[in-house]
């Protein structure tokens, strides 16, 4: 076999100084030392640190992508695949900058034509345009709750400007806590007022009760130990008559 034929059969298209075809490193391996005077030296990539998703005689292991800010990791970084990051709920990944941007809040009565999806760069040599991750659609119940809470906050504050501009779960937690605290304070105040009012009424009723300490009238009948009732008024009236009869 001629040297020219060997060059045509070399998959990498690279040769050492001696004319040997340079070998390529497999998936999950990176080039530690490219071929030249010697053959290619490969090294395994480190899990969660570096990765290599291509078969190459020149590419070293690449650092894993870090999910920062409003991004969360939906797939970890392994030796042959990079990490997949997705934006938090209520945000989408801008296709130009790659940053997470807040979703636009549609006005009442307007339609939502579609949902933003998070796309990752497809692997080299792949023709697939399917998204690697997709933001799940919120159920109608969640949308209704978010809209109702926003309306309540706007009404309480008495302002025509909307207070809640983002329908994220993080923004709704303080609203729920404020409403719950207001309900608890109102309930405690109501119970305290009822107890105070009840004690006040009981005290007024005790002061208004009559105390019968007046002496008995002169005409009250006297009760002796023998059970005979004597009318003191009649006895007093009879005394002058008795004295008159004895004088006669």
UniProtKB/TrEMBL annotation:
<dbReference type="Pfam" id="PF00020">
    <property type="entry name" value="TNFR_c6"/>
</dbReference>
<keyword id="KW-1003">Cell membrane</keyword>
<dbReference type="GO" id="GO:0031069">
    <property type="term" value="P:hair follicle morphogenesis"/>
</dbReference>
<dbReference type="GO" id="GO:0016048">
    <property type="term" value="P:detection of temperature stimulus"/>
</dbReference>
<feature type="region of interest" description="Disordered">
    <location>
        <begin position="202"/>
        <end position="248"/>
    </location>
</feature>
<keyword id="KW-0472">Membrane</keyword>
<dbReference type="GO" id="GO:0048406">
    <property type="term" value="F:nerve growth factor binding"/>
</dbReference>
<keyword id="KW-0053">Apoptosis</keyword>
<dbReference type="GO" id="GO:0099171">
    <property type="term" value="P:presynaptic modulation of chemical synaptic transmission"/>
</dbReference>
<feature type="disulfide bond">
    <location>
        <begin position="22"/>
        <end position="35"/>
    </location>
</feature>
<dbReference type="GO" id="GO:0031594">
    <property type="term" value="C:neuromuscular junction"/>
</dbReference>
<dbReference type="GO" id="GO:0021675">
    <property type="term" value="P:nerve development"/>
</dbReference>
<dbReference type="GO" id="GO:0007411">
    <property type="term" value="P:axon guidance"/>
</dbReference>
<dbReference type="GO" id="GO:0005886">
    <property type="term" value="C:plasma membrane"/>
</dbReference>
<keyword id="KW-1015">Disulfide bond</keyword>
<dbReference type="GO" id="GO:0005911">
    <property type="term" value="C:cell-cell junction"/>
</dbReference>
<keyword id="KW-0325">Glycoprotein</keyword>
<dbReference type="GO" id="GO:0005035">
    <property type="term" value="F:death receptor activity"/>
</dbReference>
<dbReference type="GO" id="GO:0008543">
    <property type="term" value="P:fibroblast growth factor receptor signaling pathway"/>
</dbReference>
<dbReference type="GO" id="GO:0042488">
    <property type="term" value="P:positive regulation of odontogenesis of dentin-containing tooth"/>
</dbReference>
<feature type="domain" description="TNFR-Cys">
    <location>
        <begin position="44"/>
        <end position="85"/>
    </location>
</feature>
<protein>
    <recommendedName>
        <fullName>TNFR-Cys domain-containing protein</fullName>
    </recommendedName>
</protein>
<dbReference type="GO" id="GO:0014069">
    <property type="term" value="C:postsynaptic density"/>
</dbReference>
<dbReference type="GO" id="GO:0006915">
    <property type="term" value="P:apoptotic process"/>
</dbReference>
<keyword id="KW-0812">Transmembrane</keyword>
<feature type="compositionally biased region" description="Polar residues">
    <location>
        <begin position="118"/>
        <end position="135"/>
    </location>
</feature>
<dbReference type="InterPro" id="IPR001368">
    <property type="entry name" value="TNFR/NGFR_Cys_rich_reg"/>
</dbReference>
<dbReference type="GO" id="GO:0040037">
    <property type="term" value="P:negative regulation of fibroblast growth factor receptor signaling pathway"/>
</dbReference>
<feature type="compositionally biased region" description="Polar residues">
    <location>
        <begin position="226"/>
        <end position="248"/>
    </location>
</feature>
<dbReference type="GO" id="GO:0005737">
    <property type="term" value="C:cytoplasm"/>
</dbReference>
<feature type="compositionally biased region" description="Polar residues">
    <location>
        <begin position="202"/>
        <end position="212"/>
    </location>
</feature>
<dbReference type="GO" id="GO:0031267">
    <property type="term" value="F:small GTPase binding"/>
</dbReference>
<dbReference type="GO" id="GO:0098793">
    <property type="term" value="C:presynapse"/>
</dbReference>
<dbReference type="GO" id="GO:0051799">
    <property type="term" value="P:negative regulation of hair follicle development"/>
</dbReference>
<dbReference type="GO" id="GO:0048144">
    <property type="term" value="P:fibroblast proliferation"/>
</dbReference>
<dbReference type="GO" id="GO:0001678">
    <property type="term" value="P:intracellular glucose homeostasis"/>
</dbReference>
<dbReference type="InterPro" id="IPR052302">
    <property type="entry name" value="Neurotrophin_rcpt-DD"/>
</dbReference>
<dbReference type="GO" id="GO:0015026">
    <property type="term" value="F:coreceptor activity"/>
</dbReference>
<feature type="disulfide bond">
    <location>
        <begin position="64"/>
        <end position="77"/>
    </location>
</feature>
<dbReference type="InterPro" id="IPR022325">
    <property type="entry name" value="TNFR_16"/>
</dbReference>
<feature type="repeat" description="TNFR-Cys">
    <location>
        <begin position="9"/>
        <end position="42"/>
    </location>
</feature>
<feature type="transmembrane region" description="Helical">
    <location>
        <begin position="173"/>
        <end position="193"/>
    </location>
</feature>
């Amino acid at each position: 076999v001629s040297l020219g034929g060997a060059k045509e059969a070399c998959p990498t298209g690279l040769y050492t100084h001696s004319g040997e075809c340079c070998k390529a490193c497999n998936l999950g391996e990176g080039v530690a030392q490219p071929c030249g005077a010697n053959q290619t030296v490969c090294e395994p990539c480190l899990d969660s640190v570096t990765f290599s998703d291509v078969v190459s005689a020149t590419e070293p292991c690449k650092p894993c992508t870090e999910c920062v800010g409003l991004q969360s990791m939906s797939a970890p970084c392994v030796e042959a695949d990079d990490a997949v990051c997705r934006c938090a709920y209520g945000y989408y990944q801008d296709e130009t900058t790659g940053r997470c941007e807040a979703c636009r809040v549609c006005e009442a009565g307007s339609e939502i034509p579609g949902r933003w999806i998070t796309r990752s760069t497809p692997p080299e040599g792949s023709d697939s345009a399917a998204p690697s991750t997709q933001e799940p659609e919120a159920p109608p119940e969640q949308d209704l709750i978010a809209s109702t809470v926003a309306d309540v906050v706007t009404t309480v504050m008495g302002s025509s400007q909307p207070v809640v501009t983002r329908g994220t779960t993080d923004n709704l937690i303080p609203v729920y806590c404020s409403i719950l605290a207001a309900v608890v304070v109102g309930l405690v105040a109501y119970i305290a007022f009822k107890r105070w009012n009840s004690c006040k009424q009981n005290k007024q009723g005790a002061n208004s009760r009559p105390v019968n300490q007046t002496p008995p009238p002169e005409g009250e009948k006297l009760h002796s130990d023998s059970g005979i009732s004597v009318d003191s008024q009649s006895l007093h009236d009879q005394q002058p008559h008795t004295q008159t009869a004895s004088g006669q």
